[in-house]
Amino acid sequence: MTDYDGIYEPSNQTHQLSLQAFFFLLILISRKEHIIISSSFIVKLSTELPIGEGLGSSASFAVCLAACFWRWSLLQKGTVLYEFGKQDLLKISNYAQNCDSIIYNSSTKIDTIISTYGMIKIFDKGIINTLTSKSFSNLPDMKILLVFSNVKKTKSKKSMKIEALKNSHLLIDFILNSIEVISSTFIYVLDIIDVKIYNRLKKNNSQFINITDNYKTLLDIIHMNQGLLKTLGMSHPNLDIICAIARNFGFAGKLASKSGVTLQDLIDMNQGLLRAIAQDFSLGGKIAASSGGRYAFIFLLSNNSDELVQDLIEIFESYNFSAKIVSLNCSGVRVE
């Protein structure tokens, strides 16, 4: 790994697991695919993903290694690939999932599937062995600002769950139901954007399509979701500062949602709860990972200027919050 200057530290768990993953996949694929190792070789790896922060670094690491060794096996058989086909991606995904499950003790296929195939995909109610039919192949790349909140890991998932248990069961049920509603709305809006772009491509029409309002709706939904998580005790003061900074840059809008479920509907359902979190609806941030929330993300609109985003990054850095622009809905593993 480039972050470690090639120095292996036996006491470093990240180093240990990386080495175990490397040899696991090398041995597994070489035996299954009959790779002949007749000389020494060098594998160079680099990543811009924060390691150990719940952002899928272990899965992407396993996918890259599996793709490397799979392509090596094909080269030894005289097949030169510059683009992976469906069967190649299936092989890579299965090998990577074996590694992620055994070495990194992962119980889900989501990270390895996304790292392999890319794009945005919908998984159904925890049933993660297969993808649902919902995917968005026409969506353009989306930009987010990934912000490190400097939260120490002492504020763990366990302490957050204790915070949540202080609330009444009725309140928790309401919040979880609200999260389910806005999650469905998020998918609905993605579908609208996907269909708009598909129709333009189908008609071979180069005319500009206005999806800015749809992006603003996604932003509102993210804001609402973060407010609900905060009510459950799943936020942190540093994250609130990040969100407040983003709010000052105007990352806000009005919610337009599915089946007539509007912001006012939710307010009517529980006025007291939503008054407490309403101040967070205009914030631009959300916890980016489920394992402790040390990273937050700011959803960037398509019409945000580079100057505006750079100013926002500089403000974050002045508060000792490092930030980096990241693309979503990209392609999966590929040969470069």
Automatic annotation (TrEMBL):
Q: Where in the cell is it found?
A: Cytoplasm
Give the similarity note. Answer: Belongs to the GHMP kinase family. Mevalonate kinase subfamily.
Question: Which pathway is recorded for this entry?
Answer: Isoprenoid biosynthesis; isopentenyl diphosphate biosynthesis via mevalonate pathway; isopentenyl diphosphate from (R)-mevalonate: step 1/3
Q: Name one GO molecular function term.
A: mevalonate kinase activity
Name the UniProt record assigns to this protein: mevalonate kinase
Which GO biological-process labels does this protein carry? Answer: cholesterol biosynthetic process; isopentenyl diphosphate biosynthetic process, mevalonate pathway
What PANTHER family does the database record attribute to this sequence?
MEVALONATE KINASE
Organism encoding this protein: Atta colombica
Instruction: Write out the entry's keywords from A to Z.
Output: ATP-binding, Cytoplasm, Kinase, Lipid biosynthesis, Lipid metabolism, Magnesium, Nucleotide-binding, Transferase
Please tell me which top-level EC class this enzyme sits in. transferase
- Show the GO cellular component annotation of the record: cytosol
**Any Pfam family the entry gives:** GHMP_kinases_N
Span of domain GHMP kinase N-terminal: 39-118
Q: What is its EC number?
A: 2.7.1.36
- For the keyword Kinase, the answer is yes
